[in-house]
């Protein structure tokens, strides 16, 4: 776990930074609010990296960097600075900062970039330490005369590369006895014979049973009672040392602060370092160890994704040594670059970058500090690449700078990806900031579902009538005031439990300016071990009020229309009554029949208005109900007729029509049924009339048939009566087609489309 010290005078930013870096990236973060306190904390605990703000009361970030570099020139240091202070960031890099990160509007984005820079810095420092420890140990093994010097170098290398606090070496002698050879970092009481009398049997059993054993604070209790008064070990590792498959000893490494993971590759690396102890016993083995160490260093250099160099400290940076990685990096062989045989290295650097590079190197060399650079070079094909360089000045015995050493790697792909990420982040930030709906992001706090606000856009600020700075750090519940609505609480619980996005179309929220209607959408995502909730919401108070007004207005109009239909129906009934009185006063049968037909037609229309008045849907009529009413009326009208008629209906109960088409349909049915009653059957006989109204393939089929005497060919072809003309005109009004079907009796079919604007062509 990477241990980070975060220094900033903004408490909100400290809390957010710790939560994001720990939850999303697995760091262990301590927070300090001033440079002075940070220096005190560094005396108490060791850290893998330091992140510091620039603008702080008292000691600023640059002064803190200077004080830290006086004590430790290697520890990664990342400076936080706002966009307007890029000059400060450049100065920090000149003074030895590894990276700088600009503070964005979004803390979430800033700390994501911080984590990336910290990981990069820590890995580079660890790689340098491992390489330096191996090189120093190889040289010590070859040059030292005393076994004690070798052991001391081994222990120092083991502590440096494992990042633990103490180490001890035990060796097996010719009689297979295990004894303590040397310690580094442990107290003197660790070597007490009483302590060793308990530890050595335990270590012997481990040495015979396994290659390496790692214990943490939960399992160290096996011998914690032995060390509880002398050593405060929190976690430790025991690594066996073998030579030609024979155990020759072990190394005991311990941490006094916290759990430290010892990965298998690091275990093997430590074994490879410490096993060189055996090499000093034999000069031949010492030579072999040195050769192998040099081979490993050369292999590492040749396999770096770039080139290692040593050059003169001049304007051309005349190369004295260049690794073969130069071919992949620049397109030139190492022999082309050494002693400026073909191009000078400086000539490969983009002209716009050269002045800055030489100035940064000069300042770093003056302070005997490392320099880190990002710039562009041209390859032998005149394509440009982005490179990252880290180097240091080489001093002679008098302390004078005689050259530069370092390595350069190709970061073109990473640079392009970083630029693309920044462009995407800028787009997303712009969309996030300028979207009309309010958006807020909440982070799970310690896995207890107490989501805290880490980001919000301008629309959310406007909805809450508060600035973001006053709301950051509030929980989801506090964000919505003292009382969270039950529907919102239920939606949040469902989201946490199922992970399914939740939508609330309207919910009443209590705000300082009064109750407001909100439309809310909730979703969540997992980032590492952390969970984030996205809240998107808008104020729909005005819309809901408008909808309520529209509904009220619509209801009033419906009442008005119903009243109109009611009055039309009453007026038509009055007309029907007048026609009936006129029919009773006349003695002419033809006139009486005409008046009766008129009454039936008036009823056909009045019945429609009556149904509309009593219907919930004032614009549509159920055909089945309407036809039933019409047939019942006609039955009553012809009660005294000299023919007995049975009515059969086949009406689709789901068919509904608007008033514009229902009136012509009713008049047609009235005309066809009336004609059948009056003319289809023999006087004194029995008859059957069938009415069918169905829906097939987007068309309505209305059929009236009887089993009477039928229509003669002459009447069918020359039908010019008023009734026939009325049916024809009404069918045309429906944009339909009328068909007379041959057979026993008379069958009339009228077909029209369900689409009012479509004409039927049969």
TrEMBL record:
Q: Pfam families this protein is in?
A: HATPase_c, HisKA_2, PAS_3, PAS_4, Response_reg
The answer to whether UniProt assigns keyword Cytoplasm to this entry is no
Write down the top EC class of this protein: transferase
Q: Which domain of life is it from?
A: Archaea
Q: Which stretches make up the PAS domain?
A: 293-368
- 4-aspartylphosphate carried by residues: 53
The protein in question is named: histidine kinase
